[in-house]
Design goal:
- The protein is an alpha/beta fold.
- It has two domains: 142 residues, D-Maltodextrin-Binding Protein, domain 2; 108 residues, Periplasmic binding protein-like II (D-Maltodextrin-Binding Protein, domain 2).
- The chain contains twelve helices and eleven strands.
- A six-stranded mixed sheet has the order 2-1-3-10-4-11, with helices on both faces. The chain has a five-stranded mixed sheet with strand order 7-6-8-5-9.
- Helix 3 packs parallel to helix 4.
- The radius of gyration is 24 Å and the shape is globular.
């Protein structure tokens, strides 16, 4: 190859490298985006409708781009948080504990006003013959039963804990018929209403919201037992947000969440207000999860 061709090729190679560097610089110069998600305790369409306005609210108050990222299931929301695909998440008590264990330095910062004293319902199709009771309904052992998601605090973890506590056995030993997992609170309500399962465990906020909206026929599905209270949902943030978005950003984010007062926005969480949260409030959830081998 003669000298002129070598010079031409070298020039072209340099141009390509400079162009590539320019593209990389443009990508690196893009403004960061705060991505958040929520455990999918409702159908995807409903979740997108509810949380898109929350993203808009945060963007306007924080002055950064904010995007809601839907999650396919409870486990996926924890994985997204672990992998930094999202930096903020509205978790249940169990998924919040699991996420904070997976990401050292992550913390619960905000919870719903109702969350320090959350509870589950056991609901039953009236055809089951089960009646409301203040005592744990041991008769559910003879009826087809469904939990919600396997990683749901109010739809699985705490209901299973109370079954073990009052029934003295694991669900596999306690129930005389096969039990199932519907996947979410709304599906549990639908399964019990249709008779696919006669009894189910569900978040009280979801069932009460459905009943108030006329989405469930309470003459056919009724609450037969209410669990004792426990801590549940919370907003958990990843560490390092100040380095990405500027000094003090994590505290500004917490304050923006606490200042959320529009009932339309709070309706996305089925909460009357958002209040401060602390990791220590979920110590009991972590203890139960460890006993049930659902956390380290």
């Amino acid at each position: 190859m003669d000298r002129s061709k070598k010079i031409l090729l070298a020039t072209l190679a340099t141009f390509v490298l400079l162009a590539a560097g320019g593209c990389g610089g443009e990508r690196a110069g893009r403004a960061p985006v705060l991505r958040f998600s929520a455990i999918p305790d409702d159908n995807t369409t409903e979740l997108n409708r509810k949380f898109a306005p929350v993203a808009t609210y945060l963007a306007e108050n924080l002055g950064v781009a904010v995007k809601y990222v839907p999650s396919s299931d409870y486990g996926a929301s924890v994985e997204m948080f672990k992998n930094d695909d999202i930096q903020l998440a509205w978790f249940g008590g169990l998924t919040g504990v699991q996420a904070r264990q997976a990401v050292p330095g992550a913390h619960a910062v905000v919870q719903g006003a109702e969350d320090p004293a959350f509870y589950s319902y056991f609901i039953a199709n009236v055809s089951s013959g089960l009646e409301p009771s203040a005592a744990f309904p041991v008769a559910i052992a003879d009826h087809p039963f469904t939990f919600g998601s396997p990683r749901s605090t109010s739809g699985r973890l705490m209901p299973e804990y109370f079954i073990r506590r009052h029934g003295g056995k694991s669900p596999r030993e306690f129930f005389r018929l096969p039990f199932g997992f519907s996947g979410s609170h709304d599906k549990t309500i639908e399964a019990v209403a249709s008779g696919a399962y006669e009894v189910g465990a569900v978040s009280h906020t979801t069932f009460d919201a459905w009943a108030a909206a006329g989405r469930v026929d309470t003459s056919k599905v009724r609450v037969i037992w209410r669990t004792p209270v426990y801590a549940d949902y919370n907003f958990t943030v990843r560490p390092g947000l100040d380095a990405t978005f500027g000094e003090g950003f994590t505290e500004r984010l917490r304050e923006a969440l606490l200042a959320m007062s529009d009932p339309k926005l709070l309706r996305a969480f089925r909460r009357s207000a958002l209040i401060p949260a602390d990791d220590a409030e979920y110590a009991a959830i972590l203890d139960v999860a460890r006993k049930l081998r659902m956390a380290r």
